[in-house]
Structures are given as structure tokens and as C-alpha cells.
């Protein structure tokens, strides 16, 4: 049996361990926001990876966006040095999950196995991928102990809310320095036979319209900021959304609808703040003097960020020219430029060969509709040799009854291990 076949067989033999690891991770409810149980999951990973011979570091992103004493942003970085010099392959997975939401028919933190799938919040996004990367690394070390270079595994905070307390913080501290880390695989759920080269860009902004407070029985004495925002939404429907639908990209973005520019109205809040759930009274009768909208604009590699912003500013100026007493402010919340790794990059070539060997088919190349932590590895770490590859179906992310297929996890782990064999010069035990 060849070394590559032995490696695949070793991972197949660890199938039950892979499932149990995925289940254990799901059972730790790392909800973000606010950022719960980050230390608990890092401690769990610490115990696991120390047993596997990794040197581990637990790193709090002190002072990063979102970090607080109540909800500290903990991360773990583990490194295993081979006996011979060589390059470093880093597997990065985020440990946080989004809110559960309604509509579940399974326990969102139960990790139940049903019909060959592990169910739970974070199963595919991305605790299944984290589990697969750990088992892949452990199997590779067992079969190829004389490998050249190093393997790193990280579990990082806050990807679901921008990654500033996770990968961004670590990149700023040099953990993704290209002189130290050479290949990065992020096991996001883009499909176990697909290589994700990058993602679209994003511009988040808050638009605020202003009015004048007055008694609700005499609204003519005030100026309703919510009505002003209604005019903004109306103009977006009339002119902006149709224009965005006409912008198309040559990036291999999936799904098909994301090949165009898009914008989501993330939230609108106007007037009196919502009271605590235990408040049983009525609101006060006031004309709202402020209304805030958060927009989430996703843009293409063919678009310029300045033009993206000007679309919104131009729309608001147009509304202002047609509406009396219309005043507004725009505050940028986040900007991320599109990124796309070249198909010729070493990590792309290695994973593509592994997919072909394991699955007997050519890899598909895709681009993610939303950003993920590759943005920080690229922008801050200046490391271009980075992809997303992992088990799971992207459409299930953030949905009720989220799951990851067990066979997909096994095959993904085999692909990851085969890539390690290629990149780190594994030898016969």
C-alpha cells in the first residue's frame, strides 16, 4: 500500500473519533454575539492538541473590537514541528457560531447523528471543518513522523462578526507572517470537492436621517425621521437595486445570485428605543427625531470602493434635492476589498491534486459571496497563498437544522492530509 493510501486508510479508521470530536465542539455553545464560551472551547482544543504533541498558545485579543472582561476574545494557536526543516501549513478555523434562530427540529447543541449527518449550530460553519483539520493533522503525524516543516492549527474568535478579535489580531501580532507561515487552508463549508479562492468585497455603513421631536398627537409640529428614511428605502428600490442587479463579475462566485452586486438592509431603528422585555407599559407618543439604517453592500472585484460609496452618497443627495428638511449622515462601519488567490498558488495546486486523487474528479474553483478570515491573512498578514477548503454545504450555514455530512468530513480530512503529504515532504514511517 502506498504512503498516500495508508494515510487515507488511517483517516478512515479514525471516523468515529472525527464524529465525536465534531459533536464535542458543537456541544460548546460559542454564540457570537456576544462571544460566549470562547475560553471553554479553547481549553478543550488545548487538551486535545497537547496530547497530539502540539505546542499550544492561548491568546486573548486584549483591547480588540468586541473584547471585554465579561466576553474576552480567546484564541488558540497550536504548532507541531517536524524533525526536518521546511515550510509551514496552517489550518485556521473560527470557533464562534451565530444565533440559533427558530425552526429547529433537532437540538442545536446536541450534535445528534442522523442518517450519516451531524446536526447542530456550527456543524458545517465550521466545527466540522475544524474537526476534519485536526484529525487530518494527527493522522499525517502518525503515518509520516519524519515530515519536513511544521503544521499549525488555530481556533479563532469572531469571524462571524468580522474577525477583529481573532485572525485580524493574530495577523497584527505576526502569526501569519509569510516568513513563518507559508500555506493557509481555512476549512469553511464551500463544498468538499471545491476550492474557494477568495471572496467578494464588503462595505458596511450606517445611514442616519434626522427630524424633530414633537408630541405624537401633533406630528405636524415635528419632523419624522422615519418618514425620511422611508424615502431613502423607496429610492433604493426605484434606482439602486435595479442598478446593482446589472453589475456582473467574472469571479467564479457561488451561488449564481451572488455573481451580481448586492446590498442587504441589515437593520432599521427609529424613534424610541425598545424597552426591556419585562416592561409592560406603552411607548410614549413622540415624533422620532432620528432613524438609523445599517446597510451591507457586497461588491465585485471589478468595482472600485470609492464608486461603491458614491452610489449611496449620490442617492442620499438626490433624495435631499427632492425632499424638504431632509438631512442625513453616513458612517462607515467596515470595508473589505475583494480578494482572490491565483490558481497557480502552491496551496491551490496541492489541494487540487488531492481532490483529484481522493475523489477521482477535477476540483471546482469558486469564490465566496461573503467575506471570511482570508481578508485579514491577505490584508494584514500579506500572505497570498491562502484558500478556503472544507466539508459542508454553504447554503446550510446560519440555517435551522444545520448539519455536516460524515462522509464529507472524512473525505475532506483525507484531502487535507494528502495536501500535507505533498507540501511537507512526508516520508515512509
TrEMBL record:
Any one Gene Ontology molecular-function term assigned to this protein's record? metal ion binding
Cross-referenced Pfam families: M20_dimer (PF07687), Peptidase_M20 (PF01546)
Which cofactors does it use?
Answer: Zn(2+); Co(2+)
Coiled-coil zones: none
- Looking at the record's lineage, which domain of life comes first? Bacteria
State the UniProt keywords alphabetically: Cobalt, Hydrolase, Metal-binding, Zinc
Chain ranges of the Peptidase M20 dimerisation domain: 198-322
Similarity remark: Belongs to the peptidase M20A family.
Q: Which PANTHER family match?
A: ACETYLORNITHINE DEACETYLASE, ARGE_DAPE-RELATED DEACYLASE
What's the protein name?
Succinyl-diaminopimelate desuccinylase
Species assigned in the record:
Lentibacter algarum
Lineage, broadest ranks: Bacteria, Pseudomonadati, Pseudomonadota, Alphaproteobacteria, Rhodobacterales
Amino acid at each position: 500500500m502506498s504512503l498516500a493510501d495508508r494515510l487515507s486508510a488511517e483517516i478512515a479508521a479514525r471516523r468515529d473519533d472525527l464524529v465525536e470530536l465534531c459533536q464535542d465542539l458543537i456541544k460548546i455553545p460559542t454564540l457570537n454575539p456576544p462571544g460566549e464560551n470562547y475560553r471553554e472551547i479553547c481549553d478543550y482544543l488545548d487538551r486535545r492538541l497537547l496530547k497530539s504533541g502540539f505546542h499550544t498558545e492561548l491568546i486573548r485579543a486584549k483591547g480588540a473590537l468586541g473584547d471585554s472582561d465579561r466576553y474576552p476574545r480567546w484564541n488558540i494557536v497550536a504548532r507541531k514541528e517536524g524533525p526536518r526543516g521546511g515550510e509551514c501549513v496552517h489550518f485556521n478555523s473560527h470557533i464562534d457560531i451565530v444565533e440559533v434562530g427558530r425552526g429547529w427540529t433537532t437540538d442545536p447543541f446536541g450534535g445528534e447523528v442522523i442518517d450519516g449527518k451531524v446536526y447542530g449550530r456550527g456543524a458545517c460553519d465550521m466545527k466540522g471543518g475544524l474537526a476534519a483539520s485536526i484529525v487530518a493533522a494527527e493522522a499525517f503525524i502518525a503515518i509520516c513522523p519524519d515530515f519536513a516543516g511544521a503544521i499549525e492549527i488555530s481556533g479563532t474568535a469572531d469571524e462571524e462578526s468580522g474577525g477583529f478579535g481573532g485572525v485580524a489580531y493574530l495577523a497584527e501580532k505576526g502569526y501569519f507572517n509569510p516568513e513563518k507561515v507559508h500555506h493557509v487552508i481555512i476549512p469553511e463549508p464551500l463544498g468538499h470537492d471545491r476550492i474557494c479562492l477568495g471572496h467578494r468585497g464588503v462595505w458596511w455603513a450606517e445611514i442616519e436621517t434626522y427630524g424633530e421631536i414633537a408630541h405624537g398627537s401633533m406630528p405636524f409640529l415635528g419632523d419624522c425621521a422615519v418618514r425620511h428614511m422611508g424615502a431613502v428605502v423607496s429610492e433604493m428600490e426605484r434606482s439602486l437595486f435595479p442598478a446593482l442587479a446589472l453589475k456582473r463579475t467574472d469571479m467564479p462566485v457561488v451561488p449564481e445570485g451572488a455573481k451580481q452586486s448586492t446590498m442587504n438592509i441589515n437593520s432599521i431603528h427609529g424613534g424610541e428605543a425598545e424597552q426591556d422585555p419585562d416592561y409592560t407599559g406603552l411607548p410614549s407618543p413622540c415624533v422620532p427625531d432620528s432613524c438609523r439604517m445599517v446597510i451591507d453592500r457586497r461588491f465585485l472585484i471589478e468595482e472600485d470602493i470609492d464608486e461603491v460609496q458614491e452610489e449611496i452618497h449620490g442617492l442620499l443627495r438626490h433624495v435631499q434635492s427632492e425632499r424638504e428638511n431632509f438631512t442625513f449622515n453616513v458612517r462607515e462601519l467596515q470595508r473589505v476589498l475583494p480578494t482572490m488567490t491565483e490558481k497557480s498558488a502552491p496551496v491551490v495546486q496541492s489541494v487540487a491534486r488531492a481532490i483529484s486523487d481522493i475523489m477521482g474528479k477535477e476540483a471546482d474553483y469558486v469564490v465566496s459571496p461573503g467575506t471570511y478570515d482570508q481578508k485579514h491573512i491577505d490584508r494584514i498578514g500579506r500572505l497570498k497563498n491562502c484558500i478556503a477548503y472544507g466539508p459542508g454545504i454553504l447554503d446550510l450555514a446560519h440555517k435551522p437544522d444545520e448539519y455536516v455530512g460524515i462522509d464529507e468530513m472524512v473525505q475532506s480530512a483525507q484531502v487535507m492530509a494528502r495536501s500535507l503529504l505533498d507540501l511537507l515532504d512526508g516520508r515512509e514511517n
